[in-house]
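ugh ok so i messed up the first submission bc i forgot one of the chains. this is the corrected input, ALL of the components this time, i swear. 598 residues overall. if the numbers dont match what u have on ur side tell me asap before i send this to the collaborators (the ones from the other lab, u know who)
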Amino acid sequence: MLLVLVMLLCSLVGPQAISLKAVVNAPTNPTMPNPDYEIFVRVRVPRIILTALVGAALAGAGVIFQALLRNPLADPYILGISSGAGLGAMLAIISGIGWTLWGRSPVAVFAFAGALVTVWLVWGVGRIAGKYHVTGLLLAGVVVNAFFSAMIMFLTSVAKSQQLYATIFWLMGNVTEEDFLVLWVGGGCIVAGLVGLFFLSPQLNIISIGYQDARSVGVPVERIELAAFALSAFITAVAVSLSGLIGFVGLIIPHAVRLVFGPDHRQLLPLSCLAGAMFLVVADTIARVIVAPAQLPVGVITALIGGPFFLVLLIKYSRKVYWLA
Amino acid sequence: MTTAIQAEHLTFGYGRDRPVLLDLSFQVQAGTFLAIVGPNGAGKTTLINLLAGLLRPHGGEVRLEGTSLRSCRVQDIARKVAVVRQEFVPAFGFSVAETVLMARTLHYGRFGFESKADREIVRQALELTDTIEFASRPLGSLSAGERQRVFIARGLAQDTPILLLDEPTSFLDLKHQVKIYDLLKSIQHQKGATIAAITHDINLATQYCEETLLLHPLHSHPAPSPSCRIGKTSEILTSEEVERAFGVRVFSAMVGNDRFLIPVGTRAKGSGL
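and heres the new structure output, hopefully the right one now
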């Protein structure tokens, strides 16, 4: 409910003032041109739905990665998704590919492919390195991340300035207006992934305690871990290819929700998705209006307003923070 | 009497050419309270992990209630046997009640939530282990002894016919050591459960366990033969056996019908005995 309200309010805020009354009245007399309605339906609503989906996906994936890696510092990008997607996007931008996919730029497709290839690589190496220990997986992620980041930096140093600007904007995380086709496909993938993860969340409680603990209470750990990794990597890749690298949401929202509502994944996952969606919608609204008519990348805003907000939460609930001790 | 635990030619090692357990065979009847004793590195924890299906034997097999673990799914094993282990890594501030409830994961409903019956089982387990008074506190805020009782509660809440414990009383004060063993004893009697506990307190084993399994480290010199003995506690935990297994002198005293053994170091006060 709160999420719907936030989304509605934010959809009314923008560089072009529109009135809710005009929007609601529009379908009653369709013959009259109504710019408010046009902006609302064709620009604001798709963008806000997209933002909410991306926020939910990142926060949800953050919860899962923290549980699977038994590490409160994990976020959706920890296994190299960010640098893999970044490299893919950059290759698409600087190669100046002419072809388009269904009339669209191939950047998102390249980013998506880059993200999935990276996760697959990290997962493969991590499994070989340590079957029962997540440290191998974490290290593989960190190293692959560093390697791809270095390649991004190399490409950055040889790229032309026009391409550079596009790349940097992408790396900072940036929601744009998308058409309904992208919204349906991307949104469908994210919602399906999150629903799947919700059905795994009861087992995640004991898995976050330890591999052997989970086995001994009858959880088929390997299967659940593989499914959870695959689903959360998938929705992260979708989110990243839709909106670039938006940081902070996937790390901090799970912690904020855990501070307030406790660590039980059965409620932590859905609540984090809702909180992540609301947070990103608000952040994106600020990014749209604060330097209007220009727009800031939303990735800048998430950390700018999210950081202080989280510190306040941390101080207020510090009595409950035993896992940081 | 049926056989609850059966090990057949069990072999396991962590590296090549260095087996921890070699060709180990024994049986435990249903409703027995078994003590597993032996020096550090003898493979006690490894044995428990093998019996619980957490490790796969390199040779031989484990049968629980007649069923080979090789053909069992994880879920089926967890209905037969619960394990209380030593290691613990705090993660994410779960409360005591939430931790114990995790034992019921297998029994959650379709949408992943516990039933009233599950909650009742958890409440009983918390009460039996004296942990209900701090049920809502985060696990990380407890002392080692309190936490150990929480893990015992989780083992009980799994509600299985076989319970394996790895040094369940290592951090506990005297009162709770005795209380936990009393509790295990009452579970053994009331539910006919089969219980196997690793312990270094051979006198607790003498007081509570009908049978004892004594493991020798394989790599010691001279190589022990046999590497494992199982039998009535009074026949296994004799001064000679314990002195041979642990390499210490012991002072033996009869209290009532039981023989108690006290290790004596070379510089201890009573070493002249």
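quick check: The CA atoms of residues 67 and 302 of chain A lie 23 Å apart. that seems consistent at least. Residues 2-320 of chain A form a domain with the ABC transporter involved in vitamin B12 uptake, BtuC fold (CATH 1.10.3470.10).
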